[in-house]
Amino acid sequence: MKGSLAFALGIALLSLGLVSINAHVTNTQVLSKEMSLSVPPTAYGELELIENATNVTAYVEVVHNGEKSIVRLDSVIPLTPGEWVIAPYQEAYSMNVTRVINVTESLSCGNVTVQKVIHEEKLVESRNATYPIYVKMSVTKMNLVEDPSLVEALGLVLTVLGLALMLFERARRP
Amino acid sequence: MIFKERYREPTLELVLPTMLVSNVFLSAFYERGGFSLLGVVLSMVPVISVSETLAFSLGLRNVIFVTGDHLYNESIISFLTTPVRREELFAFIYFSDVVVPVLLWAFTTALYSLLSGVPVPPLLALTFVVGYFFAENLVLLLTLVFKSPGVSTLVSIFVLGGVFVFGDAGEYFYALQGEYGKIFALSFTNPFVPWIITALGKDLYQQVEVGVAVDGFIAALTFVLSFLKFRGLEV
């Protein structure tokens, strides 16, 4: 009984070590305020930070396990295990504004004040994410266990041990 | 002897590895849920989770079709006449019927969680364990009262099914209506509904805790009642 139990558990552990989830899983979120993400040590993938609007330069603060870095969009970061905190840092975009100014013109009949509309380009900087920033997490591979080789070895040992025990029990039985 | 009768040659060999391997849904749901609490909660809901369902069905099989069958064809007499006190006999039967499956579940899930690094909140595991004892003790009491596997199967299907289906419906109804205070009254029927709502972003931990406490109280009550019933058993 002990032999067959060890054999069955060994095969289960062996399969846990050998198999991984290979389906491509993506998850897109719009970054409006701080978001946090905890990635288990079994996942492999990448994190894409996308700003769709072409006239906007956006910066995002990425904190990974306490290490802070400021990333200019668009960018792709490898998704390594640990705690991630992503927050909008700064965005800058140029804006066409129209302004009405008073201009005094000297004419032959005297000075006249006229209003003029002028177009000018203004650089707007803000801390808000006015233009949507997309955080696209894609996981390409997910192992079932943290240390596949260790679990495989354990499973192999248990399988062989169980098989030997089973044969031994069978041989001893009259 | 009682243990050997319930876990004969292929039972443990089939159940234990299946429980261990079927926890892959924990990883799969966790990945799909974007590594959030929702994935873990969904994968721990009984019926979705294969290992919890296995533990449940193993316990129900033991209670209804082993102990209940002994009561029905009166072969329990041979156990009752052995020179063991009834309290000890009840403890043996209860341990191997009800406690062993949940121990197997706890062992495999803890092992998988440790190996894969997917964190399972302790309150979530406790919710399942308490709910398990609630259902199993209720069924044990019904089996001891009716003394027939067929009748106790049907009655337990209706009782547990009614509790889960109508309780769930009520909880979802109040959740959709936004009347979260009323979930306190119903959370004992299925604490996993407030868990799901919590994982979706509403803080209903208090409802879960009240539900688990009420479940535990009912489980203790039915345990004591079935112990008294077993002690006064006349065959």
UniProtKB/TrEMBL annotation, chain A:
Domain of life: Archaea
Spans through the membrane: 150-168
UniProt keyword terms in alphabetical order: Membrane, Transmembrane, Transmembrane helix
Name of this protein: Uncharacterized protein
Automatic annotation (TrEMBL), chain B:
Residues passing through the membrane, by range: 36-60, 89-112, 124-146, 153-174, 180-200, 212-230
Domain of life: Archaea
Keywords associated with the record: Membrane, Transmembrane, Transmembrane helix
Organism expressing this protein natively: Candidatus Aramenus sulfurataquae
Name this protein carries in UniProt: Uncharacterized protein
